[in-house]
Amino acid sequence: MVATKQIKRALVSVYYKEGLDHIIRKLHEEDVRFISTGGTQSFIESLGIPCEAVEDLTGYPSILGGRVKTLHPKVFGGILARRENSQDRDQLDQYEIPEIDLVIVDLYPFEETVASGAEDQAIIEKIDIGGISLIRAAAKNYKDVIIVASKAQYQPLMNLLQEKGAVSTQEERRWFAKEAFAVSSGYDSAIFNYFDGGEGSAFRAAATGPMPLRYGENPHQAAKFYGNFGEVFDRLHGKEISYNNLLDIDAAVSLIDEFEELTFAILKHNNACGIASRPTVEEAWKDALAGDPVSAFGGILIANTTLTAAAAEEINKIFFEVIIAPAYEDEALEILKQKKNRIILLRKDTEMAKMQFRALLNGVLRQEKDLSIQTEDDLIAMTDKAPTRMQIEDLLFANKIVKHSKSNAITLVKNKQLCAGGIGQTSRVDSLRQAIDKARSFDFNLKGAVMASDAFFPFPDCVEIAADAGIEAVIQPGGSVNDKLSVDFCNERGIAMVKTGVRHFKH
Questions:
Q1: Could you give the 3-state DSSP secondary structure of residue 387?
Q2: Catalytically annotated residues
Q3: Dihedrals phi, psi of 497, to nearest 5 degrees
């Protein structure tokens, strides 16, 4: 049996009033009576609709600077009373408590106040008490009451009213209750994280969404993204995004943000297969593609500058999954949109998360993102020979790439262009050999190139192989008990080596 309930009386007390007028008018057409507080009462009355003040219902005024308004048995009794429970109904009659069938309430903007940089006391005052209590009470009693806990539920409520009038089924009320608990749990998580101050004494996270994805890591796996993708990108064209697309997009953004110069990068499976910094986007694309034109097929492309029509003409010659840029020339978009499934993203200026989470075993890993960026001032000479000005620029360039490559990782760079990377090998020697072989397969002359390693060299074998390939400068974290073996070899061969003291493992 479908348990339908009629809305006869609504309690409305909201911070955000945009879009509320249509709902109030529709409820009034359905002969629903209103109870409200302060500004919301004035808002309803300004629409020419009568509204009872909570103070008149409870017999108590708003007190303690507005901290206590609705916290009263005559309010919560009307919400929590079980309509089919005779004892509850008798008590409603005994204490003259009216039934409340709909609660429309939202919460003080706690997260927005924290983000604004407000002082602690201003933030504390934005911890909602009455609103969160009303939400929990109405959601708990969803068998009799509809709860609308944020403006995001205004439209679903309006759709219900337009379709059925002031009547709802239990299934519909349970849906609104579920949405309400999502609001309240997220709100409490934000408050806890503020008080926790980054200590990580417990793991509490809440995200909006979800955004459905085409599929998970493989087509037989379902997946969703929880977060506001639209805050970071406008999707201008193309098919729905997949789980793997998102991983590559995240890797691409993290990599490109290391570079201030005009740079173009191509990624495949979260690793750079081509990247170059050049005076123009056309040149940067050409030299990034030259790094590995084979792996670029089906890759993720990203630039930190406007995509021109001239660049788009060249880019359009290959198959790729996603392209990302902060701006596009109109003609460039026309060219890139020629393939209907190609995903085109316009990146917005948004602050990215500084923490990372990963589910494993029966828990969650939490760590700070690797936001360490080494500069020339961080370089410590290890060898007699110092790197040249151009080598220093290439070493820093290579170090940024290796930081974003799967360990064990080696990158070879020349003239701010990735010649090749050796990634994801169980041996650093294998990674180096992989990089050298790949660079040679695409006709790169490694004479004068530089090498970056994401971790120290436990033995001199890597610098020995690199020297034979023509590498003339090396950057590494340092810290091995055998550092001297690698340094001595470099001194013998006239190779400049610097260390950063910072390891960049990536799994």
A1: coil
A2: 140, 269
A3: -130, 135
Instruction: Measure the CA–CA gap between 421 and 449, rounded to whole angstroms.
Output: 13
Distances, alpha carbon 36 to alpha carbons 5, 14, 45, in Å: 21, 9, 10
According to DSSP, the residues that pair with 418 across neighbouring strands are: 413
- DSSP state string for 435-479: HHHHHHHTT---TT-EEEESS--SSTHHHHHHHHHT--EEEE---
SS3 content of the chain, % helix, strand, coil (to 5): 40, 20, 40
Are the C-beta atoms of residues 186 and 151 closer than 8 Å to each other?
no
| Residue 29: CA count within 13 A, CB half-sphere | 12
Instruction: Reduce the DSSP state of residue 34 to 3 states and report it.
Output: strand
Look up residue 255 and give its two tokens: 């990599």
Q: Which two tokens stand for residue 383?
A: 């060898």
**Three-class DSSP category at 369:** coil
Q: Can you list the positions of beta strands (E) in 259-416?
A: 263-268, 271-277, 299-303, 320-325, 343-347, 355-360, 363-368, 380-381, 410-413
Among the listed residues 350, 273, 265, the one whose alpha carbon sits nearest the alpha carbon of residue 304: 265
CA distances from 17 to 12, 39, 43, 131, 361 (A): 10, 10, 8, 15, 45
Q: 400-428, pLDDT tens digit by residue?
A: 999 999 999 999 999 999 999 999 999 99
Whole-model pTM? 0.85
For 297-342, how does the pLDDT look when each residue is reduced to its tens digit (9 = 90+)? 999 999 999 999 999 999 999 999 999 999 999 999 999 999 999 9
DSSP reduced 3-state for 277: strand
